[in-house]
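Practice record 12: protein with magnesium ion.
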Amino acid sequence: MSNPKSAFIITSSPNKPTQKKRKGNENDADQTEQKSSTPKSSSPLALRKLSYSDSTSTISNEDELFSPRRFSLSDSDTDITLGVNYDEKVMQKEEDYEEDIYDFSYSQLLDIEYEDDDEFNPFDFIAHLPPKPKISPHQYCLPPKELSQPDITLVLDLDETLVHCSTEPIPDPDFTFTVLFHGVEYTVYVRKRPYFVEFLEAVSKIFEVVVFTASQSVYADKLLSILDPERKYIKYRVFRNSCIDVERNYLKDLEVLGRDLSKTCIVDNSPQAYGYQIDNGIPILSWFDDKEDRELMKLIPFLKQLYKHSDVRTIIRKKFHLREILDNYKKH
Ligand SMILES: [Mg+2]
């Protein structure tokens, strides 16, 4: 379960098939099962069950500890051009990235062609989501924002955005810890994404930082208590039980945070996670083990630009063009 079952890659070559299976799929049987429930454009989700996730329901194995990993953005293959092309010099400090622009663009996703119609397509999924459930203030999962906190709330995904964890041994983990889940003790192997600390140090100075994960709190809360024991960087932690379960896709309705959505953004490697608030979503490539990865640091200059607008959605919409992509899928 340490790798996704499939992943998207994006190439700079128009019309080139861009969806490929990740190397080393060790759970093909599981993949077959997941594919069978994959929504398609011809079967709108409006008639399907939509509910807030109940973290106590029907959990059978350790995979359930983590966020689903089958649908995410990945550069697992080599023909990808995303982000800034840096030269070989090692850039250790945030300042080194100041002049660069996070050039991940959803417009590149328009070039995606799918090898297999059964593959999950997050944009098709988002385009056919049922209406979002209404949220009442009493459902907010965070206390009101403190006056001392920065204006903008930065919501961060955890798995494959900030860390990669596995209950199967992985080479060179940064650390391990144990989790007791359904009566079984699991050892969790943890890798931190490169520049994890530098990124959190930078963003926690200018944002109210919230981690919103589709993983189980029994795992994620313990992990975050190791990563940020004094809550120096991450003010709040929100778990799967605050997600909306749509066909076992755990969507993160930002409204449940009780924050002004014009002042809230989310960074997540799975686009469908912010399917109900696409104008608030900032994509990032999935991370598993690339020690040369710099995506977190590349992101900082873009995040700082959010303060130049009264509504963060304006700049995010302009940058990633997700609405245009979804319009394409809604036609089918
Ligand atoms: Mg994730």
